[in-house]
Amino acid sequence: MKEAISVLEPHLEGKRGAVRGKIVLATVFGDVHDIGKNLVGTILKNQGYEVIDCGKQVPSDEIINIVKRERPDAVGLSALLVATSREMGRL
Question: What is the pTM of this model?
């Protein structure tokens, strides 16, 4: 997946110039499925957003600390499984 994105990324038309905003992305704790998060991150970067990708299986307290430190315009959380999507409610 990451290799495919790295091949496509130079060919995607992106916005140049000023950063349009800052977004924090993370896959919640307990979930290892991050393909959707990675695709969203790539699209946002190519549209001029600064993306802070926290990775996968990120504990809630770590996400909260990153948000407090980075002060993003938006936070995107990813979870594939119903059980792990409940982790989003803790934020």
Answer: 0.80
